[in-house]
Structures are given as C-alpha cells and as structure tokens.
Automatic annotation (TrEMBL):
<dbReference type="GO" id="GO:0030687">
    <property type="term" value="C:preribosome, large subunit precursor"/>
</dbReference>
<dbReference type="InterPro" id="IPR007109">
    <property type="entry name" value="Brix"/>
</dbReference>
<dbReference type="GO" id="GO:0019843">
    <property type="term" value="F:rRNA binding"/>
</dbReference>
<feature type="region of interest" description="Disordered">
    <location>
        <begin position="228"/>
        <end position="273"/>
    </location>
</feature>
<feature type="domain" description="Brix">
    <location>
        <begin position="5"/>
        <end position="200"/>
    </location>
</feature>
<dbReference type="InterPro" id="IPR045112">
    <property type="entry name" value="PPAN-like"/>
</dbReference>
<protein>
    <recommendedName>
        <fullName>Brix domain-containing protein</fullName>
    </recommendedName>
</protein>
<dbReference type="GO" id="GO:0006364">
    <property type="term" value="P:rRNA processing"/>
</dbReference>
<feature type="compositionally biased region" description="Basic and acidic residues">
    <location>
        <begin position="228"/>
        <end position="241"/>
    </location>
</feature>
<dbReference type="Pfam" id="PF04427">
    <property type="entry name" value="Brix"/>
</dbReference>
<dbReference type="GO" id="GO:0000027">
    <property type="term" value="P:ribosomal large subunit assembly"/>
</dbReference>
<feature type="compositionally biased region" description="Acidic residues">
    <location>
        <begin position="262"/>
        <end position="273"/>
    </location>
</feature>
Length: 273
C-alpha cells in the first residue's frame, strides 16, 4: 500500500475557544501534510469531511468535538475501504510552548516527523492505529520532530510533540548527542471504543462492555445476514435499473414506428383520393 502522508484535523460542532486552539495546535503534529488553515463548514457533516479527506488522499481524519460532559476525539482510519474509528475522551490537554517554538523555528520546519510509541505492544487495542500513523508519516534526513504516543495505564495514553535536538559531542569525532525536548501540544486520551467502520459499524473493542464468545458468534451471524441482505437489495436495484433502461430504450422505437405508420396511412388516403 502506498504511503499516505496527509492528515485532516478538524473541530466539529460548537467548541470552546480553548478547545479550538488545541485543534489548531494539533495540526502542527502532521506538518507539512495537513491543512493548517482549514476553515470548517458549519453545515457540513462527518461524511462531507470524509470525502474531503479521501480527495486529498489522507490516511486519517481527526475529529475534535465537545459534549456537556466531555472533550472528545474521533480518529477515523481511511486506509481501508470499510474504515475503522477510534473513540477517545480527552481528559487533559496543554498547549505548545509558543515562545520556545518560535525561537527554534518550529512551525516553519516543514520536514515531517517520526512516530515513537512507548509501552505499546502488539496486544494493545490501538496498536493498529499507532502502526498506521507510523507507516504513513513524512520522514526525511532533515526531520527534526517526533510524535510520542505513550501508554500511561489501562486504556489511557499520552499524545505529545517533541523537537529532536542534535549536538556534537565535544572531543568525540562523528558522535552526536540526541535529546528530545517536549514542545507540545500534549493530550491525555482515554480510549472508549473501536468500531470497524467509519463512525458506525461493529464494535470490535469497548472499554466498559465485554462480550462472551457466544455473543460474538451471534453478532457475527447478524452482521453476515445484514451483509447478504444488503447485497440482495443492491442486486435487485441494479436489476430494476436495467429493466427501466431497456423499457426507456424501446419507447422511441415505438413512437417512431407509430409515426411511420401514420405517414403511410396518410399517403394511402392521398393516393385513394
């Protein structure tokens, strides 16, 4: 699969000015492959942004929203046709160090980013998401930033942004000291659920609901039946369209034959007279 560097980061619905600022700063995670100055459309729905993301060959859509109780983040994977959606609650966040960023030229360095996972193994619920972001990041020999995704405990994670500083070691030829300096923004996220689909579909993971093997098998049967019924409806619709086209294709011929018949009758009458 070809690498897809672009990401789309949006706020959806009414949000506070503080949360809107977080959204704007989070776009800096993915520079240069992000619409930094994107203006959201008030009337647009999620499906509209999905189409926009696909148009720009984005690998993921990040959707920030707020409810009365929580700050929320949905990360929609678009790498597969069916898609997958990760739902997070944003427990805490802090803005980037603006003065530090400006003094070091952060934001003007359009040279991509590394992705560094910490304490996340193959059994982790978000391992697929981490691998997708990592495998679809823009990296070059000039890259000087890193997104760190660290598991804190249970289903809680830290997402933050670092600058990579390289310094030559005094008296050591061809040796470089590498340090990470956190520049933010940073978010403490709590995974709520994962759906196999774009903002809808089968729940493959839920923080609070755990299904028994029997329930999973029953759910699989229901989904299989729904898929079969959907294919049947699609086939029936295609058949109806085909019949309608055939019917419409015959109509001009009938009309033309009728006109020819009327012309012949008129000619016969003229000859009789």
């Amino acid at each position: 699969m070809a690498r897809r560097d672009n990401k789309l980061v949006i706020k959806f619905g009414q949000v506070t000015p503080s949360y809107a600022k977080l959204v704007q700063e989070c776009r800096s995670y993915f520079e240069p492959g992000v619409g930094k100055n994107l203006k959201e459309e008030k009337k647009w729905k999620i499906k509209d942004y999905i189409q926009l993301a696909k148009h720009f060959s984005a690998s993921h859509l990040w959707v920030f929203s707020q409810s009365e109780e929580h700050n929320n983040l949905k990360i929609v994977s678009l790498l597969e046709e069916a898609g997958k959606t990760f739902y997070f609650k944003v427990n805490k966040y802090k803005f980037g160090l603006e003065m530090f960023q400006k003094s070091h030229g952060i934001g003007t360095r359009m040279n991509g980013y590394f992705v560094i996972p910490i304490n996340i193994d193959k059994s982790d619920p978000i391992i697929d998401l981490v691998d997708e972001i990592k495998n679809n990041s823009k990296v070059s020999h000039l890259t000087s930033r890193a997104i760190v995704i660290k598991k804190l405990y249970d289903d809680n994670y830290l997402f933050t942004n670092y600058m990579i500083k390289k310094e030559e070691k005094p008296g050591a030829a061809n040796q470089v000291k590498v340090t990470l300096v956190e520049i933010g923004p940073a978010m403490s996220l709590e995974l709520q659920k994962i759906e196999k689909g774009i903002c809808s579909g089968d729940v493959v993971y839920h923080r609070y609901i755990h299904k028994t093997p029997e329930e999973l098998r029953e759910r699989a049967k229901i989904l299989k039946k729904r898929a079969e019924e959907k294919l049947q409806r699609k086939a029936q619709q295609e058949e109806n369209v085909r019949r309608k086209k055939e019917k419409n294709a015959r109509r001009p011929l009938v009309s033309e034959n009728k006109e020819n018949s009327e012309t012949e009758e008129t000619a016969t009458e003229d000859e009789t007279e």
